[in-house]
Design a protein that fits this description.
By secondary structure, this protein is of the alpha/beta class. It has one domain: Glycerol-3-phosphate (1)-acyltransferase (3-Layer(aba) Sandwich). It has helices at residues 2-14, 17-34, 36-56, 63-86, 95-98, 104-111, 127-136, 151-163, 175-183, 215-223, 256-277, and strands spanning 99-102, 117-121, 141-145, 167-170, 187-191, 201-205, 208-212, 230-236, 239-244. Helix 3 crosses helix 4. The longest helix has 24 residues, at 63-86. It is globular and about 55 Å long. The relative contact order is 0.17.
């Protein structure tokens, strides 16, 4: 398996991006046909998003659209993988060829407070590239990342990120590093749309209760720092939009649990907005809501 990851990395820096996209999409065709469990997980999540959206508009779920988005999500994950292998070829000199940036002033406003920034994002578009682009813009980014199943695979991903200047903090092991980064007025980037290995917080997400990570809200409350939602959305193959949303400032009362839930809900509302706008780019392949 490690050989395949090394091969992908090799091809990423030796083949043009268009060819990488073509190869990746053919792999996605095979994955879609034979990975029934993954396909069902994607379908479950997308159906919940579209059901929520339909109810908001007074309509019923469009099953045909749901199936279309499921297939597109496999293609979008393939594009994400191709782009990850291509990362070393993206730099300050050619950044404008790939990226349009919107809302950068919000990140500057948040950093101007001098307390660091918790940047919340989602498995949407290309979150890896979002961190790299933010770093190439001159911002100190610390990505809190879940270690992969094997040390060799983990090393490949960490090296790819570090090569572009992104500092990597292993999830669940280095809280002191996270606190120090925020104290130095740096950015700590976390994914907020899927619970992994923690108790989380039970909250309504697309109209149904589920558990989501409480880390972003808990950190912002502890350090009294703003949360800046940020997303890198694919506009077309090889072209992206990096968007930063206005800072979300924590409010403190005598009820910490209430403060935590209120802040998490505000941040998650922004995540919902972008997933609703780009459902086929939401690459969360594990069922997020319990059955029923």
């Amino acid at each position: 398996m490690a050989f395949l990851y090394h091969l992908c990395c090799f091809l990423g820096v030796h083949l043009p991006l268009k060819l990488l996209y073509f190869i990746a999409k053919r792999v996605a065709d095979i994955q879609y046909l034979y990975k029934k469990g993954i396909r069902q997980g994607v379908k479950s999540n997308i159906r919940q998003v579209l059901t929520f959206q339909a109810h908001q508009n007074g309509k019923s779920l469009n099953e045909r659209l749901s199936e279309k988005y499921v297939k597109e999500s496999f293609y979008n994950f393939a594009r994400y993988a191709a782009e990850f292998s291509y990362l070393p070829k993206i730099n300050k000199n050619n950044l404008k060829k790939f990226i349009t940036i919107k809302g950068k002033r919000y990140l500057d406003q948040a950093l101007a407070k001098g307390r660091g920034v918790v940047s919340i994002t989602a498995h949407l578009g290309n979150w890896e590239l979002g961190g790299v682009v933010t770093t190439l813009l001159g911002y100190p980014v610390n990505a809190v990342a879940l270690p992969h199943k094997t040390s060799e695979r983990d090393r490949i991903f960490v090296e790819r990120r570090k090569h572009q200047g992104v500092k990597v903090i292993p999830w669940g092991k280095e809280l002191k590093k996270i606190i120090r980064a925020l104290a130095k007025n740096e950015i700590v980037a976390l994914l907020g749309d899927r619970l992994i290995g923690e108790q989380g917080i039970l909250i309504e997400f697309f109209g149904r209760k589920t558990k989501i990570p409480k880390g972003p809200a808990a950190l912002a409350l502890k350090m009294n720092c703003p949360i800046v939602p940020g997303f890198l959305i694919r506009i077309k193959e090889g072209r992206f939009l990096l968007i930063f949303e206005p800072p979300i400032l924590p409010t403190k009362t005598d009820d910490r649990e209430k403060d935590l839930e209120e802040l998490a809900r505000r941040a998650l509302g922004v995540v919902e907005k972008y997933i609703l706008a780009y459902p086929s780019q939401w690459l969360n392949f594990q069922p997020l809501w319990p059955k029923g």
